[in-house]
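Hi Q.,

Before the meeting this afternoon, I wanted you to have the heme C prediction in hand. No need to reply - just skim if you have a minute. The sequence and ligand are here:
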Amino acid sequence: MNLFDVLLNSGVAERPSDFLIFLGRIHPLVVHLPIGFLLLATLVELVVRKPKFRPLKNYTHYLWGLGSISAFVAVLFGYFLSLSGDYNENTLFWHKWLGIAVFLFSLVCYFVYKKQWKLPFYGRPILISLVVFTIFYTGHLGGNLTHGSTYLLEYAPNVVRNLAGMPDKAVPREKVTVLDSADVYLDLISPIMDRRCVSCHNDDKKKGDLDLTSYANLALGGENGEVVVPGDPNTSDLYRRITLPETHDDFMPTEGKPPLSDDEVAIISWWIQKNVPAEGYFTEMGPDEKMRDLVEKYLGLDKNNLLSQQVEVPNKAVVDSLLSYGFILNQLMMDNHFLEANFSLSEQELNDQALKTLFGLKDQIIWLNLSNSGIKNTHLEQVGQLENLIKLNLGSNTISDDGLAHLSQLQNLESINLYKTGVSDGLVWLIPKLPNLKRLYLSESKVDSATVAQLRKEYPDLKIVFEEKP
Ligand code: HEC
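Predicted structure with the ligand bound:
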């Protein structure tokens, strides 16, 4: 195989070779060279009028020369890039020809300044202005090709947008607060597409000739026709592509972008089964219990979601007295009053009174760190009343299975640390009572490896950290 083959043939018809694509992808980097050289040349042409800089006059053609050569390379690589992508044809046409114009104008500048040609009527300033104008306009169109034509002015004030013939900024759709008001396309399907697909499937960059920015465009389909078949996910190309193995060539999204979550896939599948409605309330389309729950959770509306509730400002007297007992309190969120209470750094003894006081903040405290605090089994009765706890650290304390029995009410608990404690088989009883538990720390406890193996088998989603004592 000779070099020419390597460059031009990929073996696959109609697809440029990998090497050309590789060069093409350097285009966005290379384009900055002519911009730099040519703007510098312009600047130097301006300043050589001053006596101080006059000696530079005889060298400016070098800058024009460099600018022109690099513009040629940028045009060439840009051409390679255009072979590989589906770009908006109209924008691409003008971007390409203006790029060639930059090259030609700068080449003319090179000869004019090298040979010191005389130009009639303001010839030189006009020529230089043309170079500068074409550089900026080519760059602008290039930006549109990669980011979409709305990118530059997306966040511009409406006055500026209107000047450019664009409508006012879209008012974002209000967040759904009750499931009954969720629109099937606007609140479920469209946000998924916006987040995961439209960066490649929009009006300017229509990969596979598919535009996913609106229902109407989605319905138009892509280069292979319709992408969703009403009522039949399994023959819908869109569904097929999001459910393929991630390594498959056809998998969407491509280029290693994060795949859709299982919930998102389930929502899209359901939507196709329901004949791809363009609008209408989700709850009025007869979703079954499972689907309702899934969507409710997906939209963050589930009532059980502790963190979506607003809690009150903590009582100042309670806070002060906890601080005096040696607790450190941290607010965990900017817009809510959930707290972390930490006793692990205190030098005082933890006593009953302090734990009783803690109860005064039972709505607010979601993280509690009592590691190495001298806490005993009997104290856990009070800890077990703090029903909003999500994270509980009881490590390095002399507690045992008897104490654990008090924790079964902690229905929000996601993480419990029992490092260096005396707990053992009591866990087998506790864990099924904690439906949200995701992490369990057991190193250097009295639990044996057989019990851990059993738990791991029974609760595959529970992450257990367990290292036996050496
Ligand atoms: C990183 C860019 C990129 C992203 C993100 C992306 N796609 Fe694509 N998509 C492509 C390319 C490139 C093609 C054309 C090549 C092909 O057919 O595999 C394509 C083609 C398709 C096609 C086939 C169109 C046809 O008729 O041939 C479908 C359907 C599709 N994409 C769906 C999606 C969906 C759904 C998402 C979001 C989950 C998505 N894509 C995200 C790049 C992307």
